[in-house]
TrEMBL record, chains A, B:
Protein name, entry field: NtaA/DmoA family FMN-dependent monooxygenase
Residues reported to bind FMN: 59, 96, 146, 150, 220-221
Keyword Transmembrane tagged: no
Enzyme nomenclature, EC number: 1.14.-.-
CDD domains: Nitrilotriacetate_monoxgenase (cd01095)
One MF annotation (Gene Ontology) recorded for this entry: oxidoreductase activity, acting on paired donors, with incorporation or reduction of molecular oxygen
Organism: Nocardia aurantiaca
Record keywords, A-Z: Flavoprotein, FMN, Monooxygenase, Oxidoreductase
First-tier enzyme category under EC: oxidoreductase
Superkingdom as given in the UniProt entry: Bacteria
All copies of domain Luciferase-like, residue ranges: 31-385
Family that this chain belongs to: Belongs to the NtaA/SnaA/DszA monooxygenase family.
């Protein structure tokens, strides 16, 4: 075992009883667990057993077309992760939350709370909510424009960081003799007046163990990549081939210097949906079992929403009809383009496309032995396509257990992954530097 | 022990290391626990050991004038209660949240999550946020008008209830054979269009164990009382004498019939700050120790905010200056009037008033033996001033432990309080009927 080799990072992307859209219909899962917090606490403990960097929950603010056919997210992620924090000690906890439909003060505070509660394990996957069904739940008649959502997200994150920074790390004095709770010189009123937000501050929460949550992002459109280069410390991305992964990796890292950041400041984590079995043939057979359980009517509605065309009456064994251009899409642009290119490049029928997307909605699916899965991860890592991986078990908890108990030991043996936690915070797991409040040096200068 | 006797309800109102504003300076507390989630999980377990109905956290969305002198709330209550849910099994979990500075969809969902996570133990203390410092954190230049805040709260709660009702209790089918996750006939689009909110719905969370959180309210102004009569199932209130308590109790219960509700549908819980010791003299001495630790400068700033006049330069041993009328107060009207009347009736100097308010900010403080505390509660309950009590331990955890281990057994011996939990939900603890979705009968009729 070589300890000199550079190691990578692993996030477990958790969803109900699995990422495969038919997971809850397969005998390897228990459907009712989608409603049971203990299921998710157990997943957190399994991830921790594998020394994973973090667990992560996606989120959407609407039911959409899922009602009849698919198990939706039952729990709001921050609330759920607080309960998981109470059942774990080390693993990072990344919650998705929208900059379009939250107030900066409230959201900054919730993440500060989660970071306090978890002892410094909170992460925020920043999304701009590109789904029309979400807009309808917040007083809009349509999705706010893509550019407008990203502009708001930029200002939102800047403001949230100021709120987290509003308490310097040594502001809390708690001296019972003098009766001083906090040093007012180290708690900063912001008087923030931006284009969209006016917030006086400070935040009503002392600086949390990490200072701020790990900032994560997952959009791969042009504005998504710029946003990631400016703000994100980890990026989840859907890349289907090594070459595409390498291109995305180089592209994103090249954008960092203009924001004064270096390559190590942002970790790129492509998604992988692993079907794991003793032999390659068994792994493929397992994947096929899940594919066979997909409901075409549900899949067509999902695909229609994603592509912005109505496919619900479209023939399953025909190719896709003509699609709009990415510039006309107001929702998730990068996922649109990924699916469009996949269908065109591989000349897929709608039925074939649905099967390909069923595992991870565009993320790469890989079926193989534990060694083969480890080989794939190693190749992507060593050939410049990844700093780590976003593991999306197709069924839960079994798919996560297989990865943790069968793949992780191989990675550890090869010196590619930690054998125990060496840091106490999520930022520490991802080998990121601690962050100081932006107000600390200013004060030091003023009193010098 | 008589089991025939009607029993009352007990809520533990938790705050940092105690309700007394100088609690964190007293040797009976450990200051650093205000930052430690384990402290709050322990408090939940202590409350559960005493078979209490619930624990409750207040909240405000600003630091205000507290920074230097007082330990503020570190945690956002819903996030905190989710971590407490993971450490307890029975006790109800009531979180304060504002209708003025939240989106209905987001807040309804968070409470649905907490109710799912806790197995039906969530409660919502509905507040309208009457503090100017809060307004400044949400883009306002001043507190939104009292009447406007209550109008918004009315619409907010109506809409939140519809969102919770949007999934009928048997909507989730989860049939792996047919691939049906939920019955679309039992999941309701709302298309809500009110004066302030437009929300399509349904909520993105199946109906939670209680259907909706227990609805709690604590304002005692005229609009506060009407709001409580219309929506609340439990009311926290500050009443200083038995006679005032009886008057408030009769007043509130008399308002229920016009909303089609009966006296049992709303539980009145006056606050009590108990100093408990072996002898009455020791209990009074203990209270005095806490009073002596109050910082006058901090207390004057708090009192200035509450009364709407600047007292920070006012002589401590003089009476209060002339005060505004309640109708000119845009913040918390009932607390203003309570403090004004207390000062006038008892002809208090500012220093005396600060001492009286230090324990529970206007709530009744009582120092005595465990038997005397039990006698007080029994008297208020049997003489028509209370359905239960909001116990506000002046220091924590010791003050809660003393109440649970020394007062509760006496109440149980007298047949006034349960000796074990008999219900599984918070609504059950408070002897309230389960609630059905408002859409259930409509559908039944439509298909009949």
């Amino acid at each position: 075992m070589s300890h000199a080799r550079k190691t990578f990072h692993l996030n477990a992307f958790l969803m109900g009883v699995g990422h495969h859209e038919a997971a809850w219909r397969h005998p390897r899962t228990e459907q009712r667990r989608v409603l049971d917090v203990k299921h998710f606490q157990e997943l957190g403990r399994i991830a921790e057993r594998g020394k994973l960097d973090s667990v992560f929950f996606a989120d959407g603010l609407a039911v959409g077309p899922r009602i009849a056919r698919n198990a939706l997210a039952v729990f709001e992620p921050i609330t759920l992760l607080s309960a998981i924090a109470a059942a774990t000690e080390h693993v990072g906890l990344i919650a998705t939350a929208s900059t379009t439909y939250n107030e900066p003060f409230n959201l900054a505070r919730k993440f500060a709370s989660l970071d306090h509660i978890s002892g410094g394990r909170a992460g925020w996957n920043i999304v701009t909510s590109g789904n029309a069904d979400e807009a309808f739940n917040f007083g809009y008649d349509a999705i706010p424009e893509h550019a407008r959502r990203y502009d708001r997200a930029d200002e939102f994150v800047d403001l949230a960081v100021r709120l987290w920074d509003s308490w310097e790390s040594d502001a809390v004095v708690l001296d019972p003799e003098t009766g001083i709770f906090a040093d007012p010189e180290k708690v900063h009123t912001l008087d923030y007046r931006g284009e969209r937000f006016r917030v006086r501050g400070p935040l009503n929460s002392p600086r949390s163990p990490q200072g701020r949550p790990l900032l994560v992002q997952a959009g791969s459109s042009e504005s998504g990549k710029e946003f990631a280069a400016r703000h994100a410390e980890a990026v989840f991305t859907a890349q289907r081939t090594l070459e595409e992964g390498q291109r995305f990796y180089r592209d994103l890292k090249a954008r960092l210097p203009k924001y004064g950041r270096s390559a190590d400041d942002l970790k790129v984590l492509p998604g992988l949906v692993p079907f794991i079995a003793d032999t390659e043939a068994e792994a493929h057979a397992l994947e096929q079992e899940f594919t066979d359980l997909i409901s075409p009517d549900y899949a067509l509605r999902q695909l229609s929403t994603l592509l912005g065309v109505d496919l619900t009456e479209h023939a399953l064994d025909a190719p896709l009809p003509p699609l709009p251009r990415e510039s006309d899409i107001e929702g998730g642009k990068s996922r649109f383009t990924l699916v469009k290119e996949l269908a065109e490049k591989e000349e897929l029928t709608v039925r074939q496309l649905i099967g390909k997307l069923g595992g991870g909605r565009g993320h790469r699916t890989f079926a193989g032995t534990p060694e083969q899965v480890a080989d794939e991860l190693q190749a992507w890592f060593e050939q410049g396509a990844a700093d780590g991986f976003n593991i999306m078990p197709p069924y839960l908890p079994g798919g996560l257990e297989d990865f943790v108990d069968r793949v992780v030991p191989i990675l550890q043996e090869r010196g590619l992954f930690r054998t125990d936690y060496t840091a106490t915070t999520l930022r520490g797991h991802y080998e990121l530097e601690p962050v100081e409040s932006q107000f600390t040096p200013a004060r030091t200068q003023a009193t010098a």
